[in-house]
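request received
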Amino acid sequence: MSIQIHVIDANGHQQRLQADPGSSLMELLRDQSSGVEGICGGCCACGTCHIVLESDWQPLLGTAQPEEEALLDALDERTSGSRLSCQLRLSQEMDGLSLRIVPAEC
Amino acid sequence: MALTKVQRAAQAAGKTLANRQTPFIFNEWYVAALGHEIGRELKARTILGRQLVLYRQENGEPVALDNRCGHRSFPLSRSSLEGDTIVCGYHGLRYDASGSCVEVPSQCNCAGISIRSYPLVEQGPVVWIWMGEPDQADPKQIPAMPMLDQGWITSCDYMPLKASYVYLHENLLDLTHLSFLHANTFGTPDYAAAEFDTEISEDRFILKRYVVPTRLPPVWAKPTGLEGRDAARITTSDFVSPALHIVHAQFYDIALPESERPDTRIKTAHIPTPETATSTHYFVVHGRNFAPEDDSITDFMHQQLIAAFHEDIVGLEAMEELLSNMSPEDEFFEISVKSDIASVAMRRYLKRRAEAERSQHSAPGAVHSQPAINTAVEV
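response:
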């Protein structure tokens, strides 16, 4: 069953995206929104898929692994709720997820 | 120098990746030598920064000992082999194949004098060595080399490489370089952009690339009879262990229905054994499952492959030279792209393994410091 993700894109516009569970959140945002580049293809190495989760969702998606943590630490705009969307795989539990894209500078 | 955001992120990500400064992983089976390299002469070889002496006993069993005489550090490789024992060329201490000193010419007592010996297992054309914790040496853990199976025709070689084994592993997991570094040998322009998928687990990293349709380079086209035909070239890069990478490839005429395609495959074991931090013993065992009777094909493919692998050596050595000449003030970063997915995961694994061994107090890597990065050891 497809799920819905609420996005504030790189230009501050609100979007509602439909997605199928299984692929990475980065790929969805890269293909259907703006501000996510994912130049490393999802191996947690470039920081160009930075998002901020709405506070309600932060505890629900687990904590970042050490590699993601190290990369987030190097990003100026890191805030509570910052994640790299390549490290989040779309799942049924993410239906209704709300997030903001921190635009990548490429 | 100010870095861009992506460069800075790449720099941060780089700290999680093994590189030429990462300590060695000791608790693995590595290939010490091709069997024919070890004989009745004493041979010096450095593996994982340890200087060893290799030889064969009279019954053919290979032996690996520390090259350093336990008395006053004379190289045993410059001593004499008498029967199955080495007599040190300095003061004449005699060691047996287990590393125990059995004679000190200046006294009648030599109990308790010994040097380390290393377990060896000879399998087909290669001799595996265990450099790690002696009580963890388990020959059942030696990775399989499927090209040594019955019916496959093999050839092997050894090439010294003045670069870190980490980058050789990376080279093998990202074959998009075939279109560029190997443009003059077995690369084709369509290779880099071909579709691929990956299979990544905790300790195994596999990338499968589908170059279809393509024209095969001479090394594959000639022996398979697919010259001038639209063919499929499907290549799997498989990181089996820190000591072994196997490339599997299959080729077929895409005009043929699946049921009529001959089973035409090659498997090449790329075997990077670290010598020092910045040098590697690069062994190759190549096998094919077709044209078993034709020795000229064995020679042709071997010569073509080694020419291509020399391009890797030239490239990796040029990178090593550049890296070793970097000024400490240079900002270092390497930006990874999609085709690096498997190699980035692999390099994180190598780093985790190395750090895990270092954190165990008893790990050999923790006891003996690794040679400095610029230590040159002649092969």
